[in-house]
Design goal:
Radius of gyration: 13 Å
Number of strands: 4
Oligomer: single chain
Number of domains: 1
Number of helices: 3
Structural class: alpha+beta
CATH architecture: 2-Layer Sandwich
CATH topology: GMP Synthetase, Chain A, domain 3
Amino acid sequence: MRKLLWIVLILSIACTSKLEHGQTNQDMKKLESAVQEASEIWMEWDGIIGVAQGETDKGKPCILVLTSTDTSATVQKLPKKFKGFPVKTHSSGPIDAQ
């Protein structure tokens, strides 16, 4: 679990370090807050192994949800948007944090 938290932290820092054109620090703080809140809720769900800041296919900031499997049941429970940010899923497979 500790290893997973480090992975999520590193992903968050990497994504926060660059602001998109027109984005402000205020926008990034809103995203950080949304990711934190989403993480507290969704990390309790079966199949979700991480929540981080990410980008959509068009380069816009989003909430990235990492799943252990591509189960439609888990993915279908997620909203399309959370706190105004798109939610994108990525099936990373199981992560073993020994």
